[in-house]
């Protein structure tokens, strides 16, 4: 039997009616949020992107390969001791100019002088032995002739005849051995004299003592033993060169006799001219086996500037002019972006898409190895699917234009096809060119940099005269100028 409601207790709420009311509230809230989001997206889609532009021009493009290195002499001779010993004479100092044949150093010759005297004595002994052997051979010949005469008369036996003949042969062999010993002794004497002469070190050519490593009284090791001691270097400082390391991807464009512009840190604001004289055939690899592995080739550039004294070891930067084209259509390099050929996606959008797909497919183990191979193949296909484009300003919108590029210098890129002289292309901001702009996107032009101050003054004056009509977009545009300049410099 149902109990009546107590007057002290509130009546029980009807659950169906309350739930229905809650659904209406939630539905209305969701509808309101959807309308707000739709309005915001529509407003954002209709919003024009503020950009900077420049016109395509006709100019000369010089392709450059830039590299850093140091100044070194074209010819530098390392002077090392060919015999070991103590330096007893060192009449030169670093930086001193020398002529060919000048005395550079003298090594203590006592030991080598003794060797020469010993070999001279051996030569004299060998000569005496030769004379003795000649006399013995002559006597053996006479004895043999006498025995042979007596044998014909039957006065000596056959045994005596054979003994005399053998004695002649032995005497002749001893004479030949004596001559050989004499030749060996004379050769040893010449070698000892050569070693003695090497204790005196003379300048091999005209030049300057660029490096002096040894001091008076120090001992040097001969070059025949290990690497030898480098005593000094003689260099021709009248002919200098820059030795730079060029990346393997760029060295294929460099040729002998290419013109180069060289900037030396010690000569700020000055540019030197040079030419490529040598390109290494063997690469130098730094950081081998690591993530920072770099493969370079040494390129030597002659720098001949009369009246300028360049010193070995100075830091320098070289811009090698590898190719030049004249009278071509060119745009600032930051104008050129890439998009996919099929759906005009940016590289960032493609990367995000591939990452999401890989996360879904990855299952670990053997499947991971398969996925890695597939990923590398997909990356190759994605690279082949890219095309170079520029955005051309047409009727207040950005028209995406496929272009073929050619040479590129420090600031501009050659446009082989797809663009004409005088067409206005979008140059920045960097994010807008590389990610935000699509075909037919509405754009507005930022004020030119040189007129920035004047525009700011005009905007401020208008705001003072009629503040209610001042637009927030004008203030944002003015504040965005420095950011655009920075973004445009990004590669």
Shape: elongated
- How many DSSP helices? 10
Mean pLDDT: 82
Q: Helix share of residues? A: 25-40%
Structural class: alpha+beta
Question: Strand content of the residues, in percent?
Answer: 25-35%
Query: Strand arrangement, largest sheet?
Result: 17-18-19-23-1-22
Number of separate structural domains: 4
The first-level CATH class name of the largest domain: Mainly Beta
Secondary structure tally: strands: 23
Q: Roughly how many Å is the radius of gyration?
A: 46 Å
Largest sheet: 6 strands, mixed
Uncertain runs: 1-10, 451-491
CATH fold descriptor of the largest domain: conserved putative lor/sdh protein from methanococcus maripaludis s2 fold
Q: Architecture of the largest domain, according to CATH?
A: Beta Barrel
Distance between the ends: 86 Å
Describe the structure.
- The chain is α+β, with helices and mostly antiparallel strands and 491 residues long.
- The protein has 10 helices and 23 strands.
- It folds into 4 domains: 163 residues, conserved putative lor/sdh protein from methanococcus maripaludis s2 fold (Beta Barrel), CATH 2.40.420; 93 residues, Beta Barrel (Elongation Factor Tu (Ef-tu), domain 3); 65 residues, RNA polymerase II/Efflux pump adaptor protein, barrel-sandwich hybrid domain (OB fold (Dihydrolipoamide Acetyltransferase, E2P), Beta Barrel), CATH 2.40.50.100; 90 residues.
- The strands form 4 sheets. Strands 17-18-19-23-1-22 form a 6-stranded mixed beta sheet.
- Helix 2 packs antiparallel against helix 3.
- The protein is elongated and about 160 Å long.
């Amino acid at each position: 039997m149902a109990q009546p409601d107590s007057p002290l207790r509130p009546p029980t709420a009807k659950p169906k009616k309350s739930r229905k009311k809650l659904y209406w509230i939630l539905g209305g809230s969701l509808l309101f949020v959807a309308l707000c989001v739709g309005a915001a997206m529509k407003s954002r889609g209709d919003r024009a992107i503020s950009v900077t532009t420049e016109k395509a021009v006709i100019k000369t493009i010089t392709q450059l390969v830039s590299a850093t290195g140091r100044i070194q002499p074209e010819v530098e001779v390392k002077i090392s001791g060919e015999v070991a010993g103590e330096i007893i004479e060192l009449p030169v100092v670093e930086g001193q100019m020398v002529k060919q044949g000048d005395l550079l150093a003298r090594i203590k010759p006592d030991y080598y002088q003794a060797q020469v005297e010993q070999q001279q004595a051996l030569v004299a002994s060998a000569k005496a032995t030769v004379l003795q052997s000649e006399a013995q051979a002559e006597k053996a010949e006479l004895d043999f002739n006498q025995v042979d005469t007596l044998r014909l008369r039957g006065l000596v036996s056959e045994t005596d005849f054979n003994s005399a003949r053998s004695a002649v042969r032995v005497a002749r062999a001893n004479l030949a051995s004596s001559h050989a010993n004499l030749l060996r002794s004379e050769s040893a004497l010449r070698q000892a004299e050569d070693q003695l002469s090497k204790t005196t070190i003379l300048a091999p050519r005209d030049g300057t003592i660029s490096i002096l490593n040894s001091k008076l009284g120090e001992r040097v090791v001969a070059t025949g033993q290990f690497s030898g001691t480098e005593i000094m270097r003689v260099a021709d400082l009248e002919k200098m060169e820059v030795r730079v390391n060029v990346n393997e991807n760029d060295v294929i464009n460099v040729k002998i006799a290419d013109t180069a512009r060289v900037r030396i840190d010690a000569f700020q604001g000055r540019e030197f001219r040079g030419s490529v004289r040598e390109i290494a055939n063997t690469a130098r690899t730094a950081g081998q086996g690591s993530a920072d592995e770099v493969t370079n080739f040494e390129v030597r550039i002659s720098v001949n500037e009369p009246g300028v004294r360049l010193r070995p070891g100075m830091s320098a930067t070289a811009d090698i002019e590898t190719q030049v084209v004249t009278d071509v259509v060119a745009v600032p390099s930051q104008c050129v972006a890439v998009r996919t050929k099929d759906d005009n996606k940016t590289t960032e959008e493609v990367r995000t898409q591939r990452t999401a797909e890989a996360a879904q497919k990855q299952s670990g183990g053997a499947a991971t190895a398969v996925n890695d191979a597939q990923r590398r193949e997909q990356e190759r296909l994605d690279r082949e699917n890219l095309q170079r484009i520029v955005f051309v300003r047409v009727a207040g919108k950005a028209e995406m234009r496929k272009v073929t590029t050619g040479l590129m210098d420090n600031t501009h890129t050659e446009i082989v096809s797809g663009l004409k002289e005088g067409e206005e292309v979008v140059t920045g901001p960097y994010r807008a060119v590389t990610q935000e702009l699509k075909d037919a996107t509405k754009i507005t032009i930022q004020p030119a940099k040189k007129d920035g101050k004047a525009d700011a003054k005009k905007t401020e004056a208008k705001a003072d005269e009629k503040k209610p009509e001042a637009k927030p977009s004008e203030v944002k545009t003015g504040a965005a100028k420095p950011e655009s300049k920075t973004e445009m410099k990004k590669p």
